[in-house]
Amino acid sequence: MVGVRLTVLKRRAGDHTAMHAHAGGQLALVCRGALELAAADRRMLMPMGCLGWIPPRLPHGAHYHGDLHGWSLELDSGLPAALPAQLQAWGGTPLLEGIFRRLAAWPEQADEAAAARLLQVLGDELAWAEPYPSSLPWPRHPALRQLAQALQAEPARDWDLQRWAEHIGMSRRSLIRHFRAETGLGVGEWRERLRMMRAQALLAEGRSVSFCALELGYCDCSAFIVAFRRCFGGTPGRFLSD
């Protein structure tokens, strides 16, 4: 199809892709494993069944959790309307997956107008799809990035705001104000979302619920399950069985 290229995504657990950019936009559907994407101002974790968008010319790197299988749809032209200018994830639907499978079997000499209509259906379905809560804005200020990177490296670290403020050389009041201004989230809310993204990566790697709870700093499995349900609307056990 003119302006569209569909390829199979297949990566081994632990693989990395260095920072790069695509001339056109890219939609990725994850069928197994989890795909983690990092751009300058956002991190995103796409578990099994999730569909993600990478805008044209956006520098990003990737990390693969578990053996990853999926599809990558590169769009050089005819992008569906209203796609965002940043990384975005949606919960997958049977129709979205069906469109990808149909495009994979599309004959080379097929009617281009028919392909364009199929892409329009894809755009319409994305407009209805629910955004998936696994995208995390990344602060720009160097001191706030230092905090974010420390929590990314050690998500179980449970310092209070005063200690964090002293660690990064800001006042507690400035930390609270600037962090929310740059991310739209409080530090505690941001940290919990980071932990939940990390939880999905660990689950995709085959880790147990009890391992995730301990690794992420929860006092017990019940507290971890409550946090997971609050973020994703289901339990880790349901996530593993999907």
What would you call the structural class?
Answer: alpha+beta
Q: Architecture of the largest domain, CATH level 2?
A: Sandwich
User: What fraction strand?
Assistant: 25-35%
| Number of strand elements | 8
At the fourth level of CATH, the homologous superfamily of the largest domain is: Regulatory protein AraC
First-residue to last-residue Cα separation: 32 Å
**Quick check: average pLDDT?**
89
CATH fold-level name of the largest domain: Jelly Rolls
Q: Spans of 5+ residues with little confidence (pLDDT < 50)?
A: none
Query: Taking Cα atoms only, what radius of gyration do you get, to the nearest Å?
Result: 19 Å
Helix percentage range: 40-55%
CATH class of the largest domain: Mainly Beta
Count structural domains.
Answer: 2
Number of helices: 9
Largest sheet: 8 strands, antiparallel
Approximate shape: globular
User: What is the N-to-C order of secondary-structure elements (H for helix, E for strand)?
Assistant: EEEEEEEHHEHHHHHHH
Protein name: HTH araC/xylS-type domain-containing protein
InterPro entries: AraC-bd, Homeodomain-like_sf, HTH_AraC, RmlC-like_jellyroll, RmlC_Cupin_sf
Keywords: DNA-binding, Transcription, Transcription regulation
